[in-house]
Design brief:
about 300 residues; alpha+beta; Butyryl-CoA Dehydrogenase, subunit A, domain 3; Nuclear Transport Factor 2, Chain: A; seven-stranded mixed beta sheet; about 55% helix
Length: about 300
């Protein structure tokens, strides 16, 4: 085996971990892949014998690449969630069958990185997001993160602390009982399909927030309150031919299909107790087309 082949094999051992880092930082599966590939290019041009801890080195390199990408978004004026016109951009969902994640998805979503948490991460400033994700989610020392940010360790610690407070305040831990969450989602689906407004309101938190990201081709919607969200859900259910249970970022969700098996939406639910507190819906046809949703349809 050549030296380059040996290095490539070592890199592949770290790829799943690096994808997990980049996904949390960027919220985009395709951009995460790009960041990981760029890390390989940088490694292949580096004297790897001078790298004592390859995993740690690659993690900080991916962090630096993602930081540049996040700052580039800011420079271009891209808003992560909502702008003055009500446009919403949700993070890419990780969709799997209703029963289990595959091994790669388990690594990607370790620590229960749900859509609600990903949304909060997108509201953090780039440096704040990097400090929080690398330290709190991947135990990278503050000294190493400070070198990426060009700040002192003390300043970096403050950034992570600020990010932590934002996350804890806006994305409380969901109910850990998956079976009960599935029951709530099933009740939501049954009520929406049956047009039962009262039953639908009963499973929605009075202060629920529903976000729908239609990309550039469909309207983006932001709805608040149980009555408003229930009305929208009943209207949407009329257009869906099939709605199938799925795991969306490891938690019970729904994928809806239209005529000819065309994917219409991926729905992610945040549930506290027996109520849905937030509903995040990806309806962007371009992004839906890039997702592998065959596992949700099963043998159909």
């Amino acid at each position: 085996m050549s030296e380059k082949d040996f290095l490539a094999r070592r890199f592949e051992e770290h790829r799943p971990h690096l994808r997990a880092v980049a996904y949390r930082l960027l919220g985009s599966l395709s951009e995460a892949e790009d960041a990981v590939q760029e890390a390989w290019f940088r490694l292949s041009r580096t004297d790897d014998e001078a790298v004592e801890n390859l995993g740690g080195w690659l993690t900080t390199v991916v962090g630096r690449i993602c930081l540049d990408m996040l700052r580039s978004r800011t420079t271009r004026g891209e808003e992560p969630l909502e702008d003055q016109d009500g446009r919403v951009r949700l993070p890419d969902p990780v969709v799997s069958g209703p029963d289990r994640l595959d091994p790669e998805q388990e690594i990607l979503l370790a620590d229960s990185v749900g859509i609600a948490l990903m949304i909060v991460l997108q509201t953090l400033a780039p440096a704040e997001r990097l400090a929080f994700v690398l330290h709190d989610m991947f135990a990278v020392p503050f000294d190493d993160i400070a070198a990426v940010l060009g700040r002192t360790p003390a300043s970096t610690r403050q950034l992570a602390s600020r990010g932590r407070r934002r996350v804890q305040g806006a994305a409380p831990a969901p109910d850990t009982d998956i079976a009960r969450r599935r029951q709530v989602v099933d009740a939501f689906l049954a009520a929406a399909r049956g047009g039962d407004f009262e039953a639908l309101v009963a499973v929605l938190d009075p202060e629920i927030v529903a976000r729908s990201d239609g990309g550039t081709l469909l309207p983006n919607l932001l709805r608040r309150g149980a009555a408003e969200v229930a009305s929208q859900a009943i209207m949407f259910a009329r257009f869906a031919e099939v709605a199938r249970p799925a795991l969306v970022n490891g938690t019970p969700g729904v994928v809806a299909f239209g005529d000819g098996g065309r994917p219409m939406s991926v729905m992610s639910f945040t549930i506290q107790g027996d109520r849905i507190t937030s509903l995040d819906i990806l309806t962007d046809p371009e992004r839906l087309a890039r997702l592998d949703l065959a596992v949700v349809l099963g043998d159909d």
